[in-house]
Amino acid sequence: MKRVKLVVAYDGTNYHGWQLQPGAVTIEQVLNETLTELLGEPIAVIGASRTDSGVHALGNVAVFDTEHRMPGEKVCFALNQRLPADIRIQSSCEVPDGWHPRRCPCVKTYEYRILNRSVELPQQRLYTAFCRFPADVERMRRGAAFLVGEHDFKSFCNVRTQAESTVRRVYDIQVERDAGDVITIRIRGNGFLYNMVRIIAGTLLKTGMGQMEPEAVRTALEARDRQAAGPTAPARGLTLVGIEYL
């Protein structure tokens, strides 16, 4: 028996998130079914990040156990021959038996992308959230600065979260606008709560539009009340960029 690690990229548009759900197609389901067919034995992957419906990934991580003789580094190529075009394994390798993608210390990086212009662009519709009202990036940066560090992010998570603790550490938040009117919020942290990045994005966008003062982000954080923060931004703007294990 050996344990194989996968780095998984996917377009989440046509999936109901990562985690298995009755009556819905998910990334985890497709990986399990395809690996089972490839290796000829029941396979159940363990994912590092249970991304929501419609969320994308460039570098989610999963592991599975197998008795098959195929070398770990060869699984990547063989699996990609069978997966749908919107899921691709970026790399595969063997890891120690006890290695678990959710229990090992890591840094996760997410990006949230907002198309900020007067008219939508069809080419961006699946990978950005659209906002027609001008957003001030500098105001967004000022608001974001209050979220850096270790805090209780209870105001910035879905009320249905099952996390034992709502304390998380955010290492860095960058807000940039490119020449194509796409605002990218890039956030790095040691872990994120249910909907946390999307709520941060919705709050910073509200700040950028002048509907909320940058200092109000700190007030919302200290309130530890979901009602104090901004709205949950749409899933399609969010991408899990990668996971760095320490």
Account of the protein in words:
Strands 1, 2, 3, 4, 5, 6, 7, 8, 9 and 10 form a 10-stranded mixed sheet that branches. The model has no long low-confidence stretch (mean pLDDT 97). It is globular and about 60 Å long. The longest helix is centred in the N-terminal third of the chain and has 13 residues, at 27-39. Helices cover 22% and strands 31% of the residues. The chain is α+β, with helices and mostly antiparallel strands and 246 residues long. Homodimer. It catalyses: uridine(38/39/40) in tRNA = pseudouridine(38/39/40) in tRNA. It is an enzyme of class 5 (isomerase).
List the main descriptive attributes of the protein structure presented here.
globular; 246 residues; alpha+beta; ten-stranded mixed beta sheet; 10 strands
Helix/sheet category: alpha+beta
Order of helices and strands: EHEEHEEEHEEEHHE
* Beta strand %: 25-35%
What's the main sheet like? 10 strands, mixed
Number of alpha- plus pi-helical segments: 5
- What is the percent of helical residues? 10-25%
Task: Please state the overall shape, judged from the principal axes of the Cα atoms.
Answer: globular
Q: Please state the average pLDDT score.
A: 97
Low-confidence stretches: none
Q: Please give the alpha-carbon distance between the first and last residues.
A: 25 Å
Radius of gyration: 19 Å
